[in-house]
Specification:
Elements lengths: L5 H10 L1 H22 L4 E9 L7 H18 L2 H11 L5 H7 E5 L5 E8 L2 H23 L4 E5 L12 H26 L6 H8 L3 E6 L2 H5 L8 H4 L4 H15 L8 E6 L6 H14 L4 E5 L7 H5 L6 H7 L10 E2 L5 E4 L8 H5 L2 H11 L4 E8 L5 H6 L4 E7 L5 H13 L4 E9 L1 E2 L2 E2 L8
Parallel strand pairs: 5-12, 6-10, 6-11, 7-9, 7-10, 11-12
Antiparallel strand pairs: 1-3, 1-4, 2-3, 8-9, 13-14
Helix pairs in contact: 2-7, 4-6, 11-12
Length: 447
């Protein structure tokens, strides 16, 4: 059984408190509709009878009376008693139907039996209760030849339904809604395999966290094109510092070795790897480094859309083996020190192109022209492309997303890269909603 983190559960519950509110409101509304419009009001009347005698009662007689109490309670609901009541009052109920409406109880340490009858009609409930008591007296006399059963209290007509208490039911509906909502959230949390927190990634994946990029949905709302490069458009936005932190951490992780080629990949589509790789390239360029961003996702690469440039790029270059004219495939951008090679046309064999000697020769030549080459790769799951590119890179970064990336797939991504001896630098947690310092899920996607 998976170990549950209480802090993560509490954070999840706080974030999803509105779900409990919805369950509570729904339960109250449905409950009140049932109570006021559907539920049938029932009235209860009770007749009390006592086992007595006009003779002096000895201790042995008292003991006998006590032992007979249980037997008498069964006689009350016997067929003879109830059928006689049905006949006397001309009831439409069958024996079984009437029996369900009758309850019999013995008062502890006494010789008193209470006969209670519930019915939609308060007057009829009283009449049935008294009639059952009378027929019971007659039945006991026939069976035991005794006249020691007397009516202690006749039934009274009830003024209000016994099964209707709006205040009490309202409170029950509130607590019922809270419990159902909490149960739903717990089940959702337990069976949700997506990443729930940064701590979970650190404990289960056992890779350094190179940085966390906060959710910048608010900044996106101010940009007409959601594929825009936010770092250049919003230099003072909070997430810019997150990107700079990743850049700094990558530099520190590379102190003992020369790092130029950095692959940015992910487990599945939609985690924001292109968003991260594009902004990371811009950040290096703004740090006075000559940077080239290459879209190695030859299947669905979107870098050309983000920079609004023509899509004649890597696949065209590899197929033509046009290394001598490589500058024709390099696109200048409006950002100083940053160039881009787009994915090019979608080829029928992208993994073969990336695994070719031509691609390796292209990287070797470009490496001498730039300080950093950021490679925007494909997702790892079910695709070999980034596994191939990782072997040509100096460092590999894995992008994941809170509430979106399944933890199992992230673990598999790490194992797949380790199996090909990829130089793993660490994990970037993208799209982290910031709410009072907590990590919460946002559904916005930048991919």
């Amino acid at each position: 059984m998976e170990e549950l983190n209480i802090n993560d559960i509490l954070k999840f519950f706080v974030k999803k408190i509105w779900v409990i509110g919805i369950f509570t409101v729904a339960c109250v509304i449905l409950g009140l509709i049932y109570s006021t419009s559907i539920k049938t009001p029932l009235y209860k009347s009770t007749t009390s009878i006592i086992l007595a005698s006009d003779q002096t009662i000895t201790q042995s007689d008292l003991t006998l009376y006590q032992k007979l109490i249980n037997t008498y309670t069964q006689i009350v609901t016997s067929k003879n008693v109830l059928n006689n009541t049905i006949s006397d009052l001309y009831l439409k109920d069958s024996y079984d139907e009437l029996k369900k409406k009758v309850s019999v109880s013995a008062v502890t340490d006494t010789e008193i039996i209470k006969i209670s009858v519930s019915n939609e009609d308060a007057n009829l409930a009283k009449r049935i209760s008294d009639s059952i008591a009378d027929n019971f007296k007659e039945e006991v006399q026939k069976i035991y030849n005794l006249t020691n059963v007397s009516i202690l209290d006749k039934a009274e007509v009830a003024d209000v339904p016994y099964n209707y208490n709006l205040i009490k039911e309202f409170i029950i509906y509130i607590f019922g809604g809270i419990l159902l909502g909490a149960l739903y959230l717990f089940i959702s949390y337990y069976f949700d395999r997506n990443i729930k927190s940064k701590d979970e990634v650190e404990s289960k994946i056992n890779l350094p966290i190179m940085g966390s990029v906060r959710d910048c949905e608010k900044e996106v709302k101010n940009v007409t094109n959601k594929n825009a490069i936010l770092l250049s458009n919003h230099p003072r936005a909070g997430f810019v510092e997150d990107i700079k932190t990743i850049r700094t951490n990558l530099d520190f992780a590379s102190l003992d070795q020369k790092v130029k080629k950095v692959l940015v990949t992910s487990s599945i589509p939609g985690e924001g790897k292109s968003f991260v790789s594009s902004n990371l390239a811009i950040s290096f360029a703004q740090n006075n480094k000559k940077v080239l961003l290459i879209d190695t996702d030859l299947r669905k690469g979107v870098v050309h859309k983000k920079f609004n440039i023509k899509n004649i790029g890597l696949s065209n270059l590899i197929v033509k083996n046009d290394i001598d004219n490589i500058n024709d495939y390099i696109n200048k951008t409006t950002i100083d020190n940053l160039d881009v090679i787009t994915r090019g046309i979608v080829p029928p064999n992208p993994s073969e192109l990336l695994n070719s000697k031509v691609f390796k020769n292209i990287l070797d030549k470009l490496e001498g022209l730039y300080d950093y080459i950021i490679l925007d790769g494909t997702p790892i799951t079910n695709l070999p492309d980034s596994l191939i590119v990782s072997g040509l890179s100096d460092k590999t970064l894995i992008v994941s997303t809170i509430g979106y990336t399944p933890i199992d797939l992230l673990e598999n991504t790490k194992k797949s890269l380790e199996n090909v001896n990829a130089p793993l630098a660490g994990i970037i947690i993208n799209r982290v909603p910031v709410h009072k310092g907590g990590y919460y899920y946002s559904a916005y996607k930048y991919e």
